[in-house]
Amino acid sequence: MRTLTATLLAEQARMSVKPLAKIDLNNAIDVGNPAIDRTSGAVQGSTIIDLTNPANDSGILTDVDLWFKINFGTPANVKVGTFYLVSGVTYKCRAYAYVGTITPGSKQTVSGLAIPIHAGDFIGIFWSNLSTESSIEQDSAGYVGYAYKIGDYVTVGSETTYTVGSNGRISVYGYRTGNSYSYSTERILDIKQTELDDSQRVEVLLNNSDKALTSLDLRGYTATLSYGAKTTAGDEYSACAPMKVLNQDLLSAQGYLRCLLTLVGIPDQLEADKASKDYAHHASDTKTVKSLITEVLSGQPTAATLTEEQASTTSNLSVSNGWWVMAGQRLVIPNRKVTNIGFLMYKVGAPTGTAYYVLKSTYDGSQIARIAFDPSTLAGTAAWAERALSAATVINDEVRLYVEYAGAGTANYVAVKCSTANPKSGEVAEQTAATMSGWLTLPTTDACYRYKYTATGIDVFGHCVAYTATYDSEDAVIDTYQPKDSFTIALGESRLSVVKRLLGYTSEEMRVPADGQVHILVPQSIPESYYGLAPKMTPYESYNPEALLFSATIYGAQWRGQSFTPSTAHTINYAKFRLFRGGSPGTVTCDVWATDGSGHPTGTALCKGYISGNDLTANTAGSTYTILLGGAALAANTKYALSLKAPDGSSTNYVAFNVKTAGGYSGGITEVSNNSGGTWSVASGSIDFEFEEGRADHIFYSEVNRNRLVIPNKVTVKTYASAGTAYSGTAASSASFNLLAIEDFRQMPLVSDAQAGSIVSAIITRLENSANKGSATVPMNVGAEVWDYVNVVDARQGNSQAGNIGMLTRHYGQNEWSMSLSFGKVAREGIKGTLPTERTDGVETSPQPTYDDMLQVKDSMRDIDYQLNQLKGEHEWIKQQYVTGSALNTALLDALINYLSLDGGVMNSGGSSVIDMNSSKIMGLAAATANGEAVRYEQLLNNVTQYSLYGSRAFSTDYQNTTGYARRVAVTLQFTVASAADTILNGESSANAYCAAGSGASLTTRVGIAGIKPNGLTLAFAGDQLVTAGNLSFDVPNSYYYKLTNQISDDGVTPTISEWFEWDKS
């Protein structure tokens, strides 16, 4: 529940209170600090990021103000950029603009820029001078600070770790000039708000009788809606989450001008954010659910070092044991930035000399890395031995990764572990000896290799607005479970869907409150709000001495409490204390506890409530404050305890309560904890709080109590069938399972049965929290939020219902000031029941059409627009042409439909964006004469000539296409393997086709390959030949060069050209 002022919290439900509402609209953006003359300066040569004023919204910076010091040189090569925090003190540049040379000594404004920025981003700068030093105006104390790093990092995507200079700021200010508007009760006629964890939508109806809104375009504005009341302390409000104006409708009828704004919240914007490509998480990635959610919401990828390996082992590949000198793996590395390579290996005996890890391309034999190591340092039993490349290298090729050692003979050598079960599809182990010219392929074997590479991270939401994830509470799963390769993102999947899937591993939920951050939390089961039938307060236990002797302070880990013993069983949902404050202690929480045998608070709080410590009186005499609690049933003659805490306070920012010593309250005593409730003890001196506790019954208008089954009510998770070790876990919602068993089964990476148990327990908890348990219509509680735990007691029906709010609907209007809440996620239907008491808000009503009438008109207009859009994309033009008065001119529309229809086919079939021709044809098409025109059938077949150029085309010769059109080339090759009574191992040959705009040295773009690789086949001949064929074909653009080369790695294999065809347009 949002923190409210004490008076707003206490008075909002009173029948006599005047309800208030306002909406603030803004589309201006600003970031950084005003460009003014400051006390000192920061010199050139470093990237400086100002941290004092982060961007208030997302959009485009159009202007930047700068002020450089006049007593230094003129700053040149100035670049201004936007930055966001990656983690810790690591920042990344989102975008920048080059602004050139800036005149020092005064504020200089650079306009006409277009620098993208997201809410929460910072502004940064870099500049350099060739000859003289220059400096930007800077304050060195009294502000948030700035981050700096020597060098130019104002480049898109540049990410590095900075040093943070505390308390300073610089004169750099970026902005987009905009407008702001604020409308309150005088203009707001009606508000309908629906809030769920995954959607926030509001319709605000404004009075436009003065036409003040007619000329405004408010679409895209950031809107902050606030509800409040005219309390005894004045007009007080509580803001909702920031939203965006999606639609602005101007409604007009006789004597009726209205403006309807449709607002959508951050969850809806997350739903609109779509992944730009597929993403597959790697099995070696150790990011937890929490880190993945944070990364997805930030929109910015977090790099990780990942490992590709083959670790299954059944046998060995020996290296330098008298025969073999190289052993390793042939594999494809798909466009990865490799940093380390290694093998699972060991030494035999005492190998000496130098061994090597080698990484080579299989296509051209080029060496990517060759790393020396001392084989004597290897362990005598199999262990991973890994080495770093001299520089991280991007590899997108088939490679050989192998160990090379020509060392000490049969007793002293090294061995690489391998598996003969061929666990890595598409890869293979290989060996070679000193006397061999090729490699022996081991078709069913894979070496135990490893390479590490730097992965970009989740790079599919970089085009989206960055949001901050805030974790209010965490279960046992969210920051421990690693989804590994079970986590993927599909092209076009929404960002909201990804977050919800990740939360599905846990018992956590999300909500977006007034700070605009995405809060992740475990919904609590301690009531924070209580609704009953009658607006009255009934005290049960209290202590109000005539004289108070002294006060005690509460802050941080220093909690204080008062035990009490009620003589009558009742529900407690309020407590009163005499309090005052020192400084600004923040939120104060009151908890109700059961007590142990010694009378100390124990277990989990039975219920709780809140009050703003910053709103308490500073007068040390104190004032009495009421804290509304969520509600808990107390038994008669049983000791309980109340406690107060201010966890954000300090020794100078505290809450103080008044106490009396000796002979005070007989049903309890003051309790003390100095370790945040870890342990409690009786306060010295036999002192007691001044307190009161009891039941405050608040109005509810109607309620529906539902009993629904949890479905599914039994969940089993287990490892994949391919996992080395099988783990599993099962949990059930017993009450529902015993009535109607519905089970669910899921597979995922697991490391233990205990982990599986934690995950299924979290899933069941989430299902139970989400189960629909009913609904109620209650007076407005401006502090209520989704997932608050509330209690509704119905004395009429003799029952109660408690649960977490899954949906909130608020209605503010001329005759209504109410809120409906539904428990769980299933309840989406409207709340049925009696209407609340009519209220008056002072807004003049109109006898003209009702709001519902206007909505009906609006819906009819949207239906017309939709129909017209089906005929033509520009619906405004259609309305002008085909709407007469308020009705469609159907004759004209029928004519348009007939004109667009196809003979035998339909247009936009199934709502797709293509024309479905079926069996129809386009007849009478003229012959194409220029690029971009449709081509007739005979044009595709005629005027193309085939040429057989066998005998006139040869290897390693540059040819050029000069026809003016594209040329098609097809070549058939013959590979001959010959032997004269010897054995050939791994003879290889390939022919490579190249095509490029330039000839000679620039003709390096390969467009085709054909070849032969016997791959370990032993060929024994007596003067015979083995002949095989290969084919390749490619297209040559006009004026491009092309050639064919051969690559021979064994003299026993020879390629020859047997056919060469070319097709040209004549």
Detail the topology: elements first, then pairings:
Layout lengths: L5 H6 L6 E9 L2 E4 L7 E4 L2 E5 L8 E3 L1 E4 L11 E10 L2 E11 L7 E3 L4 E3 L4 E5 L8 E5 L5 E6 L8 E3 L1 E4 L2 E2 L1 E5 L3 E4 L4 E9 L2 E9 L14 E10 L2 E6 L3 E11 L2 E10 H7 L6 E2 L8 H10 L5 E6 L5 E5 L4 E25 L6 E7 L5 E7 L9 E22 L8 E7 L8 E6 L6 E3 L3 E2 L1 E7 L13 E3 L16 E2 L5 H9 L5 E3 L6 E4 L7 E3 L4 E8 L6 E5 L4 E6 L5 E13 L4 E9 L5 E12 L10 E12 L5 E6 L8 E8 L8 E4 L7 E2 L4 E3 L1 E7 L4 E4 L8 E5 L9 E5 L1 H6 L3 E5 L5 H18 L3 E6 L9 E6 L4 E15 L3 E7 L27 H21 L3 H8 E2 L2 E2 L1 H11 L36 H5 L2 E5 L10 E2 L6 E18 L4 E8 L9 E7 L6 E18 ...
Parallel strand pairs: 37-40, 41-60, 56-58
Antiparallel strand pairs: 1-18, 1-21, 2-17, 3-12, 4-11, 4-13, 5-10, 6-9, 6-17, 7-8, 7-11, 8-14, 12-16, 13-15, 19-20, 19-61, 20-24, 21-22, 21-23, 23-24, 25-38, 26-36, 27-32, 28-31, 28-32, 28-33, 28-36, 29-30, 29-31, 32-35, 33-34, 39-40, 42-54, 43-50, 44-49, 44-51, 45-48, 45-50, 45-54, 46-47, ...
Helix pairs in contact: 3-4, 7-8
